[in-house]
Amino acid sequence: MEIDNINNDEYMDVMAVTSADKVWVIDGKNGNEIWHWNATNNLYSIATGDLNNDGQIDVVVAGYDRVVTALYGNNGTIIWQFFCNR
Ligand SMILES: [Ca+2]
Ligand SMILES: [Ca+2]
Questions:
Q1: Ligand 2 center–CA 18 separation, angstroms
Q2: Angstrom distance (rounded) from CA 51 to CA 44
Q3: 73: CA distance to ligand 1 center in Å?
Q4: Which of 7, 19, 36, 69 has the maximum number of C-beta atoms within 10 A of its C-beta?
């Protein structure tokens, strides 16, 4: 779980991974879904930060199958994936 203001309003939002392998981004103001991403990699970790320095907070998740995925914070599409197979 992570807390950050992903839609640049005046309220913090919630980023969570669930056992159904989904990433959920929930508007902290009203509890509505902002977006979700259907993962494939048994997620257990999530963090936020502006990875590409565009002023928009992004989301990074990692899973038990050794894949790290970076997602655009505005819509949840994939920025990149890193496969930790070494
Ligand atoms: Ca917000
Ligand atoms: Ca960004």
A1: 23
A2: 20
A3: 11
A4: 69
